[in-house]
Design a protein that fits this description.
alpha/beta, four-stranded mixed sheet, globular, binds zinc ion
Length: 291
């Protein structure tokens, strides 16, 4: 179960890993906390699909649902919505207040209850989400971490989140944080691009992150996923309102990427089965258990 904040996050964080596991027969469910209703159009060649509009919360939700369905099909995974409304990325100084009723403003218990219910019904062995910082400081990404962390720890406890639905408690075995954009990876790809005489898309990003001295979290688990980078790319392109097919995500030639960095990284945040890091499989320790 991969828990993400917005439609498109599943395609930019750990996407090839989910495609690989799905292709190998693992039942993969992407959970999207919000409808992405406050995302701006980030692709200059985007055209609003016929019969739709992108100017209202409802209009954007409908378009992004279409995009999400195509992305999930490209990855070969199932996907479901938690049903919360995008908080938007507040900008300015001072920052404006978050919009009424948005995901980030929900009390933890109310925000987590639908995910706890889903964990009890889907019964995942492994959950992935973001680290406590959100990976980047979007209020929905931080909230996404909080609800996934809460559900991972509470879903197995029959005394918590008692619902009418009557789903049995379920204890997931491992919790991971996505770390696909480590400085180590950015630097390696950056140097390979320069070595090939190409313009690197990561130069400014590396500089600004180094200047902010953001502490690097530890990648404990590297999943080989290069064979599924094409599926990840197809899923990204499906998010046509958000992803420019000529843009950042496609600036690194795929042969260079597969050669220099064929893996996707995760941090093992909790495990209820014996496992040893570093790992190369999110199910390490579980395959033995199920035999
Ligand atoms: Zn997001």
């Amino acid at each position: 179960m991969a828990v993400h904040a917005h439609p498109d996050d599943e395609s930019s964080k750990g996407a090839a890993t989910t495609a690989r596991y799905a292709a190998e027969g693992v039942e993969v469910l992407v959970v999207t906390c919000t409808g992405g209703e406050r995302g701006d159009v980030l692709n200059p060649s985007f055209e609003v699909p016929e019969g739709h509009e992108f100017d209202s919360v409802e209009g954007r939700r409908a378009v992004r649902r279409l995009e999400m369905a195509d992305a999930a099909a490209a990855l070969g995974v199932r996907q479901t919505w938690l049903g919360f409304v995008d908080s938007g990325l507040p900008e300015g100084d001072p920052l404006p207040p978050l919009p009424d009723g948005c995901f980030a403003l929900q009390p933890l218990e109310e925000a987590s209850a639908p995910l706890v219910e889903l964990v009890r019904r889907f019964r995942p062995h492994v959950m992935t989400t973001y680290d406590p910082s959100g990976g980047y400081p979007h209020p929905d990404h931080i909230k996404c971490h909080e609800v996934a962390y809460e559900a991972y720890h509470a879903a197995g406890d029959a005394s918590r989140y008692v619902t009418d639905g009557g789903a049995e408690p379920w204890t997931p075995r491992k919790l991971y944080y996505n770390h696909g954009f480590s400085m180590e990876r950015l630097r390696a790809v950056h140097e390979a691009m320069q070595g090939a005489g190409l313009e690197s898309p990561f130069g400014d990003w590396i500089e600004s992150r180094a200047a902010r001295e953001i502490p690097e979290r530890e990648a404990t688990t590297r999943v080989h996923a290069a064979d599924y980078f094409d599926r990840r790319d197809a899923a990204l392109v499906a998010h046509a309102s958000q992803i420019d097919p000529e843009g950042f995500f496609f600036a690194v030639p795929r042969d260079i990427e597969a050669d220099v960095w064929p893996t996707e990284e995760f941090e093992l945040a909790d495990s209820r089965v014996p496992t040893e890091v570093p790992e190369d499989d999110l199910f390490a320790g579980l395959r033995e258990e199920s035999r």
